């Protein structure tokens, strides 16, 4: 299995709550997973643990056979091969679109960097926008530059934290369609965090639903559509056992 998270455990210091309580799930290569949950359920914390920005209290996480953490192994964020896109895009305002994308690339010749930047900008349909600055772009275009920058180094996994929350409703609908198409075209494995059920259902191959720091259910969007576990007796057992396989 491409990515395996097993019995992941985390609490913030000085907090009585267990923020991530015994999470186990697997992700296949090229799969798009939505982590769906209400505000405060622990979604961003899970992404921070995957990214290596927080140290888990227990459990293990491997990505493409590499131990990200397990017992005393803790791979630093910069060595994990994981790209991130956050809700505020975090583009460098004084850099052009192309320079923003080039920033994510290292250890390549100048020629190769330029080629890769052109490729990813084409993928997100921003060819011709290379010389513009972030303030000269729409919100959706800025979001696509952020995605291009994260995808440029060909990370093994991309994490997206509520990437649409700053966009207006019409744009959200368009961008989520674009995002799924872009991720699938590049065969990128992605974990996408949202509190919005529509986004989760439109984008994901599978959804990991979190309630109060615990995995409530895992399943395909068609399995989980609009139902709560109490409305489908036995649902947790079937989907969870079938799908985590760890
Ligand atoms: N630095 C911190 N110190 C202590 N508690 C924290 C810290 N950051 C988050 N928390 C708490 O951990 C819990 C989970 O927070 P987290 O940000 O992961 O939730 P979330 O599901 O991403 O929420 P949102 O959708 O609002 O971003 C919340 O109860 C939050 O108050």
Automatic annotation (TrEMBL):
GO terms for molecular function: ATP binding. InterPro entries: AAA+_ATPase (IPR003593), ABC_SmlMolc_Importer (IPR050093), ABC_transporter-like_ATP-bd (IPR003439), ABC_transporter-like_CS (IPR017871), ABC_transpr_FbpC (IPR015853), P-loop_NTPase (IPR027417). Gene3D superfamilies: P-loop containing nucleotide triphosphate hydrolases. The keyword Cell membrane applies. Residues 3-237 form the ABC transporter domain. Pfam families: ABC_tran (PF00005). Keywords: ATP-binding, Cell membrane, Ion transport, Iron, Iron transport, Membrane, Nucleotide-binding, Transport. The keyword Lipid metabolism does not apply. SUPFAM superfamilies: P-loop containing nucleoside triphosphate hydrolases. This is ABC transporter ATP-binding protein.
